[in-house]
Design brief:
Layout (H helix, E strand, L loop, with lengths): L7 H26 L7 H16 L5 E6 L15 E2 L5 E10 L1 H5 L6 E8 L10 E7 L14 H12 L7 E5 L5 H9 L3 E5 L3 H7 L9 E7 H13 L3 E7 L3 H10 L11 H4 L4 E7 L10 E2 L3 E10 L5 E9 L9
Parallel strand pairs: 1-3, 6-7, 6-8
Antiparallel strand pairs: 1-2, 3-4, 4-10, 5-8, 5-9, 10-12, 11-12, 12-13
């Protein structure tokens, strides 16, 4: 009788990889923190990209960037298709080295560094277009929200499922002109609205966390950020739906080429965006709803990170203390 159990070394590798990812997001956060509040978002982003790319050289994977900084001719590092890692299992990588470059530059809440891993072929290859999104947390009935339902119906369903008056339901969305109708209808339904200037990955995750006081995330934001959010939502067994939004036929054709045989206009379920075994890590750059920001002290820096695995459902918050005298990077 053959033994069909999963090899033990794969399980150990999977666990180790989850913790190795923290070092990658920590490196990017530490590098970008030098630019916090200095008003130079491009310098902050560049520092995060370079530090994250170098950190990946120590991770035991054969990785391919599928959500990254752009095409090869647009980005010198972490471009779509770039190979990273020190060798190991074939993995697809989704990154946002600094989500919220403006937030970092202005020292506003919720700037984070983000990485997600999935087994090869399990991330949606999302072009740089908008995605309509809706997210709720775990322990709710399947289908409690639907992207095609009105926001009023979705809010009522969430309130009923959570056994809360609709007046206590909080919807989070980006503060954008395109969301004026969504915001108005949410308030007309009696619910509250929390507006963000940037950072919809952190906001989508917050909708899945009990201590965030966010019940639902909705609205349109970047499609690459939607895939990163889906990876995190998978890890905590939340619910998410999305749909790519196109400005012209060229964008639609690009999405079709990136995902052959798939209807680019289809409604995307959570597993359409992030399937299989998924690992996720984020580190705070500035303090926000999800994570504390970097604290830079005379001799060391303190980081606060979140790391999750879909296989186990484990959510870890990790505080790291980084000694300037022994760290391989040099504080500026």
């Amino acid at each position: 009788m053959s033994d069909t159990r999963e090899p033990k070394q794969f399980v150990v590798s999977d666990r180790n990889l989850a913790l190795e990812l923290v070092r990658v997001t920590e490196a990017a956060a530490l590098a970008s923190s030098h630019w916090t509040g200095r008003g130079k978002k491009n310098d902050a982003d560049g520092a995060a990209v370079e530090a994250m790319r170098i950190a990946f050289d120590t991770v035991a994977i054969d990785g391919t960037v599928v959500i990254g900084e752009g095409e090869m001719d647009e980005a010198p590092m972490l471009y779509i298709g770039e190979k990273v890692g020190a060798g190991g299992p074939a993995m697809d990588i989704a990154v946002d080295p600094l989500e919220g470059t403006n937030l970092c530059a202005k020292d506003m809440p919720n700037a984070i560094t983000v990485v997600a891993l999935a087994e090869k072929g399990n991330f949606l290859h999302a072009p740089d277009v908008y995605m309509d999104k809706i997210v709720v947390g775990p322990n709710l009935p399947d289908g409690v929200v639907d992207l095609e339902a009105s926001i009023e119906n979705n809010l009522r369903n969430v309130a009923r499922a959570k056994n809360k008056p609709i007046e206590d339901i909080v919807l989070c969305t980006l503060d954008r002109e395109r969301h004026e109708e969504l915001i108005a209808k949410t308030r007309e339904a009696g619910a509250r609205v929390r507006l963000l200037s940037d950072g919809d990955v952190a906001a989508a995750i917050a909708a899945c966390m009990d201590n965030s006081q966010v019940d639902i995330y909705a609205g349109s934001g970047g499609a690459p950020e939607g895939v990163l959010a889906a990876a995190a939502v998978r890890c905590v067994e939340g619910q998410m739906q999305g749909r790519l939004l196109f400005e012209d036929d060229a964008q639609r054709e690009r999405a079709q080429k990136m995902n052959p045989g798939k209807d680019p206009d289809r409604k995307l379920g959570l597993h359409d965006m992030a399937a299989g075994s998924v690992l996720f890590s984020a580190t705070g750059v500035t303090s926000g709803t999800l994570l504390r920001g970097i604290r830079r002290l005379p001799t060391h820096a303190v980081t606060h990170s979140l790391v999750m695995r879909s296989k186990s459902g484990t959510v870890r918050f990790i505080e790291g203390h980084h000694n300037f005298s022994t760290k391989t990077w040099t504080p500026q």
